[in-house]
Write a structure and sequence with these properties.
The chain is α/β, with parallel strands linked by helices. It has 8 helices and 9 strands.
Length: 238
């Protein structure tokens, strides 16, 4: 793993996204890296803000509207594009979602932690709330703080590094195009290919659940409406 390809998929929620960006570009990263934001059909105003931010903070901005007419979410396309580039560069593919804020040491330490574990497929940072308590989607990790351990459940892509060896072993073009999100499926492919996923509870990142997809807050505030949208509109297929 010669370098890191850091990426953030974005659809609006630009204020949250810019907090993510600032934390990444101000990180203490010793390994060479590139940072790409994939703009998944944000509004015209949001796109203009991202274009301005790309000049200010130096990240590469890819507007998916220039590549596809497929409506958002386009997570599969993002993963496939990023996988190709990462494999060609022998890079770790480090996803940091737009509702996550990393610490200065998070990304470098994930890189080093993955390198130390030759069987690592995914190295994931645990998520916490503003008070530092482990939160969704890693509630099952409560009581295992300040550790690194093999994760038998799936790893979320909130803040996760996918290693080049694993990226070479499993082609994302085999993923089901009818789904919207792929962290569960990809996590479950790791042991099938002789790899192991690791959760780093010693590397907490601040996560505002579903900050990038506000409609999903309905799951907690109005679950009937959430599941009605999920099943009648075909949203949020995992």
């Amino acid at each position: 793993m010669k370098c890191l390809h850091i990426l953030t998929p974005v659809k609006d929620s630009i204020d949250f996204t810019l907090e993510t960006v600032k934390a990444i570009v101000n990180s203490d990263i010793k390994v060479p890296y590139t940072y790409t934001i994939y703009n998944d059909f944000s509004s015209e105003e949001g796109t203009k803000r991202l274009e301005a931010a790309s000049k200010e903070y130096g990240f590469r901005l890819i507007n998916l509207s220039d590549i596809t007419t497929h409506p958002s979410p386009n997570y599969l396309l993002v993963l496939q594009m990023a996988q190709k580039e990462a494999v060609e560069a022998d890079a770790g593919m480090l996803i940091v979602e737009s509702d996550v804020v990393v610490k200065k040491n998070t990304l470098q330490d994930l890189y080093e932690g993955a390198l130390e574990r030759p069987d690592c497929a995914i190295a994931a940072a645990v998520t916490v709330d503003e008070q530092g308590e482990i939160n969704y989607p890693y509630l099952h990790a409560k009581g295992k703080e300040n550790q690194v351990y093999a994760e038998k459940k799936h790893c979320s892509f909130c803040c996760s590094l996918l290693t080049p060896d694993f990226l070479r072993a499993f082609d994302f073009h085999l993923l089901d195009p009818e789904k919207n999100w792929f962290d569960v499926t990809i996590s479950h492919e790791a042991p099938k290919h002789g790899f192991q996923n690791y959760l780093f509870t010693k590397l907490p990142v601040w996560h505002r659940p579903h900050g990038s997809r506000p409609w999903k807050q309905l799951k907690y505030t109005n679950p009937l409406k959430y599941y009605w949208l999920k099943f009648t509109k075909g949203l949020d297929k995992i």
